[in-house]
Amino acid sequence: MTAAIELMDVRKNFGLAEIIRGVDLRIERAERHAIIGPNGAGKSTLFNLITGKYGLTGGTIKLHGEDVGGLKPFEISRRGLSRSFQITNIFANMTVFENLRCGLLWSMGYKYSFWTLVDRQSRLTERAEELLEQINLGDRRDTIAGVLTYAEQRALEIGITIAGGADVIMLDEPTAGMSHSETAAMVQLIRKVTEGKTLVMVEHDMGVIFDVADRISVLVYGEIIESDTPEVVRASAKVKEAYLGSSLDEADA
Amino acid sequence: MTAIKSTDRAAAATSGSAVLKRFAPWIIAALFLLFLPVIFASGSALTIMNQMAITIVFALAYNMLLGQGGMLSFGHAVYMGLGGFFCVHLMNMVAAEEWFLPIPLLPLFGGIFGLAFAMVIGFFSTRRAGTVFAMISLGIGELIAACSIIIVVFFGGEEGISGDRTMGPEIFGLDFGSQIEVYYLTAAWLLVSAAAMYFYSRTPIGRLANAVRDNEERAEFLGYSQRYVRLISFCASGFFAGIAGGLFAINFEILTEENLNLVTSGTILLITFLGGVGFFIGPIIGAIFFTLLQTVLSLYTEIWQLYVGALFVLTVMFFPGGMSGLLFMHVRPYQLGKLNILFLPYLKTFLPATAAILGGVGFLEIAFHAKNASVGDQMMTLFWLTFDSHGLIPWLVCVLLAIVGGYLACRMAPLLRDAWDEANSLVAN
Amino acid sequence: MELVIINLLDGLVMGLLLFMLSSGLTLIFSMMGVLNFAHASFYMLGAYFGYQISQYVGFWPGLIIAPVLVGCGGALIERYGLRRVHKFGHVPELIFTFGLALLIEEVVQFIWGKSQMAYDEPAVLNFALFSIGGNEFPAYKVFMIFIAVGIFLVLLYILTRTRVGLVIQAALSYPDTVQNLGHNVPLVFMGVFGVGTALAGLAGVIAGPSLGTFPGMAFLLGSIVFVTIVVGGLGSLWGALLASLLIGWLLTFAASYNVHMSDVLTAIGFTPPEDMAEHFLRDLWTLTMPQIGPILPYILMVLILIVRPRGLMGKREV
How many domains does chain B fold into? Predict the structure, then answer.
């Protein structure tokens, strides 16, 4: 069976700076994969490479066995990969409902249609309402997204990301800046909406990672130094060294 | 029709009254347009109304770009102008009986021509939004305007080209020889175009134009190419601008370089922005307001463009939502039943502000008169007062009015702001 | 041959004049992300201020005072106008500067009227410095060249040799990082806007006497300046220089060589149609070089955008 995502010797330079220095990674279908690493290790860059935001300097990226290197974000998105952003990235001037509906349009086959009225599409409305309930924002349906609370915006971000029904979901620090209870709710939400899908996430909160992930890759200075189950990664000497032994122990406590 | 499906939630609610509710604004608009000439029957009123209707179509088309797509164009007159030029040529071909085409259909062909040209230009100009798009639109606008002087065959050089709308085949006995016939034709096209543009904004591509405007990156990760979304918006806008051009051709029967140049492009930006880009009705308000300003204010003062310029700059600085934005700001206080809180503070602020503006206007008018009136003609009339523009008293009155009024208005502004906050807060008073 | 040299010099004058505007525009754009639509209006203000000052104390004091006044005006507009609009985004900023351009033109017409001002070269420079093959070259144009080159050198010195220059350069290369430089960013913005507009004002003072001082001068040159920075590559100073000179020469040469399209067409083997007055290509046949001169910059821009969207020297894709 082909992997959901396969990276082979992926490289990215910005000018003379080598940010990603030859990453090989294989993420199986329906796997929950976390990418961790110290600040500046290149986690977000790796995300942006896989999703087509940045062009590759070298290497190959395959999505479901198909080479997607050099494709534009929208082309990759159409092939069933969807992502969220570290900094909340929603349509701030639209209502929550409209945000979700925008996320649905392509996957429901509307393309660039200018002959159908969105308000009269019952299937579309139904799906958007379902999503609204799924992310627990039912009572905020007609609120302008820009005035939601931070946690609500993050939930909406997840909602837009999963709306298109992509089977590979990539989340960039979904719980960043959240309180304890908000984080717990977010983890639950992530579990719920990504059931049966491939999940790739960058995360700093070790509790979340060990809770959710099947496998963990550790990225340090643009290279993956370890990629295995949580137990193995936790015990790895290399990883401990890279993290100076601190964060992992804290997570244990 | 999707509305007939029984599973359709929207259709479930679509009883007779819901249909009526949805179409009510359009029915009212149609009736309004139908009876408008009964109230304003004079020839000059008809002329103004025709001009207004054409400007509304153009401004709505322009707002498809600026308001809905977030694309600022400094050269949109090109699409209206080219549509118009094309229509005059068609009109002349019809008159020469080389072609058979009822005159009322002419704007459609103007639209198609505008659309075709927008496709060509949009192909490379919509690659990026924002500043770059604005620059390219300016360059293309200037290029076409300059070309119009050179390419005499199509543009008629400096005199432009003219036609005769009455030479077309008569349809139901109409030959468009009278103003009122042209009015109803223009009004019909206005209604159809406005409805089409409104419904366009409710289609997937219309919603995505908004999405790309707000956050082009996010839209890309939802499967949409920002470039295509912009291109389609651009073409649609070019189409409706072309329709406005066709209406212009029918109404004025002449097009010149003026219809293509930066002045016209800039004016439509000004109109749209003054009216407000955030609401569908904004450009309509802007077009009506500006046409009135242009025809009425220019009768009373020679420096009306100075006032318009100042008004525009102040609007950009203080009311980026334009007039419709200001209007809709009051919806929330109205819903909360708190509009009455605002009444007194408004009165307290606007009275001195009006005095200050009158003082400023008076100052400018007197200065202009004193500088430009012919020698010996020192008497001027302003606000029904006649006085010597070289005397000291009028100047002093104006300056005093401006300073005192301005001071009082500034003193009252915090009051208004507090009242505004209160009117918008959910807490009952 | 003599004509070529004269044209080269004339084109140089035009190009350097364009550069005085496009350099300021580029600096402002690169630092603040604002395309100052009113840039040419400040150039016009420079000319009018220079004229007004010359009425009282002569040309030379105006050369200093007028640009300073324009620069101060620009800085104030940045402080109290642009900064206010900044929070709404780049498009409203652009609309603001567009409104400003309209307003400045109206104000100029209000104060000075619609006709051309009698703003002349100072008498000291009102002679022909040399002549080439019977074509006299006025001393004033040489003076313009010197001023423009002088400004260019000063700019180059400031940008490469001073601390402020290094900050500006950093901002040019990495627009997103200006905020992190630890400098008083609003003050730097105000300064850059002031200096940029002062440069435009200076260009106005020296161009006013030779190109004419009238209310339409801003829009006449304005669009060409915008074309220049697109052609040169948005945000590139060297690109601005290259494009300014290129367009300066393009305009000058096109205006002085009366090449007829009919000659070109016959030379490559076409025969003129017999029914010239009626033929649909008659405009093409009667075309002359001076006629298409003014639109050449725009054609150049469209070509550049299609072939090389980031401009001649630009790093960022348009």
Answer: 2
Q: How confident is the model at residue C179 (pLDDT cuts 50, 70, 90)?
A: low
Nearest CA-CA distance, residue C52 and chain B, Å: 16
Q: Are B112 and B29 members of one domain? A: yes
CA distance C283 to chain B (A): 6
Facing B205 at nearest CB: one of A77, A114, A126: A114
Q: Which tens digit of pLDDT belongs to each residue from B245-269?
A: 999 999 999 999 999 999 999 999 9
Q: Model confidence over B347-399: pLDDT tens digits? A: 888 888 888 888 888 888 888 887 877 666 667 777 777 777 677 788 888 88
- If you measure CA to CA, which chain C residue comes closest to B262? C219
Domain assignment present for B25: yes
**In contact, C291 and B150? CB cutoff 8 Å:** yes
Query: Touching check for C298 and chain B: CB below 8 Å?
Result: yes
Partner-chain contact A112 B223, CB within 8 Å: no
Total domains, chain C: 1
Indicate whether B5 belongs to any domain: no
CA distance to partner chain B, nearest, from residue A61 (Å): 17
Average the pLDDT over each of A182-191, A240-249, B43-52 and give the range with the smallest value: A240-249
How far lies C215's CA from each of A167, C65, C109, C110, in Å?
62, 21, 6, 10
Q: Looking at the structure, do residues B52 and B147 belong to the same domain, yes or no?
A: yes
CATH of the domain at A33: 3.40.50.300
ipTM of the complex: 0.88
Residue B370 lies in a domain: yes
pTM: 0.90
* Pair (B166, B310) in one structural domain: yes
Confidence label for B9 from pLDDT (cuts 50, 70 and 90): very low
Calculate how close chain B gets to C193, using CA atoms only, in Å: 18
Of B8, B203, B211, the CB nearest to A91: B211
Cβ separation of B303 and C106 shorter than 8 Å? yes
- Domain limits at A215? 5-252
Of A89, A114, A125, the CB nearest to B203: A114
Q: Determine whether the interchain pair B218/A91 forms a contact, defined as Cβ–Cβ distance below 8 Å.
A: yes
Question: Would you state the pLDDT for residue A253?
Answer: 39
**Contact C62/C54 with Cβ under 8 angstroms?**
yes
Confidence of residue B427 (pLDDT cuts 50, 70, 90): low
Residues of A in contact with B222 (CB under 8 A): 74, 77, 82, 102-103, 105-106, 160, 163-164
Using one digit for the tens of pLDDT, what is the confidence trace for A8-22?
A: 999 999 888 888 999
Beta strands A32-36 and A215-220: pairing type? parallel
The per-residue pLDDT for C70 is 95
Record: contact B306-C110, CB cut-off 8 A: yes
Mean of per-residue pLDDT scores for chain C: 85
User: For residue C180, what pLDDT is reported?
Assistant: 64
* Residue A14 neighbours by CB under 8 Å, 6+ apart: none
Note the pLDDT tens digit of each residue in A43-70.
Answer: 989 999 999 989 999 999 999 999 998 8
A85: which chain B residues are within 8 Å (Cβ-Cβ)?
218
* Cβ distance of B310 and C35 shorter than 8 Å: no
Asked if residue B186 is part of any domain, the answer here is yes
Residue-number span of the structural domain to which C112 is assigned: 2-216
**Beta carbons of A160 and A151 less than 8 angstroms apart:** no
Query: Tokens 């300066």 correspond to what residue?
Result: C248
